[in-house]
């Protein structure tokens, strides 16, 4: 399965960790780097501040990728035990190294299929899924499979973006069309870049109850320069730029239109521009 | 000037007040009515909970309309003194009656032009503007005029919606096109239905400093039935339906497409639907 967008949104979430590991060397001045760290922390807080698991609880992180969220989970719930699965052994190796380097010992990693998690029914107190459902052809089936390994009364937490939630000033038809290419390409490989808005029906439909959805908007204007740089430019716009080749190859949009769209996204980073994007965090109980 | 949308968004904000005045008689059962009151309070809290003025402060409410916000202001800051202006004597009469009926004595009303407020420079400690700039051909000039009557160090608070912030599940091209008709029609009469996202550059450009913008998203799903009814249906969809005649007369959209758009907005009110809309609240200092 091709992977549009996951890297993009995760880039920023990973940023702080990577910088702390001295691996982020894109030439920022130390003052800029510090602001980026602060704002990456802002985004981490926005998404994760209210995810805390009790001492001794068993938590399944489904689709841990390279461990960007795992580090935050392990930090915030040091006495919970995390079992992290992913379909990619390469990602798992990176995740394990990242968590080890950060000094956490409460996470284990194993290759597994999210549709068939190799655990007995009721094995976990909690399940955590972040930036994963958007890439799955059948998120409802994944949620049902995850529900099966959750004990009765256990909770699921799901975080997803929604690329259709992006709006900005100055408004631009071309920027919207370029974003539309990303959404269409992700749909063509079985994903759904608009899944954030669907979390309520997805969790309810999978049999979870007490489903509560909490939108988390990233709002960017010139008074938040590190979000301009780190989110609007390096995360969102870079992600849209990433589909240029495929979008043009398939004739989804003309090259001048695509370039104008990218140009207009950068335009929102000027002092009089603004940019909005919404993540959705949902919780439910078995 | 024609007025698209103001009535719509204000409908819901007015709802609680009107119901308390026993003037809202659309046939709800008392249980439904109670939920609507609760949720109208939710929206009032969302927008206004952090607007409080100190005892003795002089506050200008510019564009008070029928007094929907005035009642909340007077309630929350009982020892501040409000001067409320509007261009419509009919609205002012209704606002005055509303505030009197609610038992508040700390607001006075007078007809005035927002571009030329008839007050000496520095007359006010604070200025409050809600759902007004979206209707003005020159919001920047209005902000400059309001800044002039503010004392140095005084604050301005601006609240506006943004119809382009609406997104929903199931997604629908027709619904977006119907909303687009409302946006275009409002633009044709000199307004801007996408003004929420522009508050930062507008306030900064008018010379205010310490400008802080706070987005306030109304998120609606089946777990919030009174918002489904009171916001998605009776406020937003009703507002879009309100431009049917004009949009069709001008050939902006075909009748079947418009009807499909409205139908698709109602579709988001089904148990598996969701709806998102963002208001923007901005503050700045002179």
List keywords for this structure.
homodimer, 286 residues, alpha/beta, eight-stranded mixed beta sheet, 10 helices, 44% helix
N-end to C-end Cα span of chain A: 30 Å
What is the radius of gyration of chain A computed over CA atoms, rounded to a whole number of angstroms?
Answer: 19 Å
- Secondary-structure element pattern of chain A, one letter each: HHEHEHEEHEEHHEHHHE
Beta content of chain A: 15-25%
Count helical runs of chain A: 10
General shape of chain A: globular
- Largest interface (CB < 8 Å): A-B, 30 and 30 residues
Counting DSSP E segments of at least 2 residues, the number of strands of chain A comes to: 8
Could you please describe the fold and organization of this structure?
2 copies of one chain form a homodimer. The first copy, chain A, has helices at about 5-20, 30-50, 70-75, 90-100, 140-150, 175-190, 200-205, 225-240, 245-250, 255-265, and strands spanning about 60, 80-85, 105-110, 125-130, 150-160, 165-170, 210-220, 275-285. Chain A has about 290 residues and is of the alpha/beta class. In chain A, strands 1, 2, 3, 4, 5, 6, 7 and 8 form an 8-stranded mixed sheet that branches. The interface between A and B is medium-sized, with 30 and 30 residues.
In a nutshell, what does this entry contain?
Two copies of one chain form a homodimer. Chain A is of the alpha/beta class and 286 residues long.
């Amino acid at each position: 399965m091709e992977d549009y967008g996951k890297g993009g949104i995760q880039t920023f979430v990973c940023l702080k960790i990577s910088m702390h590991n001295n691996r982020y060397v894109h030439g920022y001045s130390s003052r800029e780097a510090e602001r980026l760290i602060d704002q990456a922390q802002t985004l981490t807080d926005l998404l994760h501040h209210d995810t805390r698991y009790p001492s001794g609880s068993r938590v399944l992180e489904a689709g841990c990728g390279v461990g960007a969220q795992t580090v935050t989970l392990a930090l915030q719930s040091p006495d919970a035990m995390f079992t992290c699965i992913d379909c990619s052994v390469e990602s798992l190796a990176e995740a394990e190294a990242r968590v080890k380097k950060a000094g956490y010992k409460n996470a284990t990693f194993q290759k597994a299929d999210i549709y068939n998690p190799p655990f007995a029914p009721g094995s976990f107190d909690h399940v955590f899924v972040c930036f994963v459902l958007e890439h799955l052809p059948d998120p409802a089936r994944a949620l049902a499979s995850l529900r099966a390994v959750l004990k009765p009364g256990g909770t699921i937490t799901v975080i997803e973006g929604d690329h259709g939630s992006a709006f900005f000033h100055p408004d631009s038809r071309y920027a919207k069309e370029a974003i539309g290419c990303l959404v269409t390409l992700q749909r063509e490989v079985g994903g759904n870049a608009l899944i954030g808005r669907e979390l309520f029906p997805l969790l309810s439909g999978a049999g979870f109850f007490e489903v509560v959805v909490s939108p988390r908007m990233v709002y960017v204007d010139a008074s938040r320069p590190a979000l301009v740089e780190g989110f609007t430019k390096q995360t969102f716009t870079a992600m849209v730029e990433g589909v240029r080749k495929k979008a043009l190859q398939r004739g989804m949009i003309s090259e001048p239109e695509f370039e104008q769209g990218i140009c207009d996204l950068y335009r929102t980073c000027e002092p009089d521009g603004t940019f909005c994007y919404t993540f959705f965090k949902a919780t439910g109980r078995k």
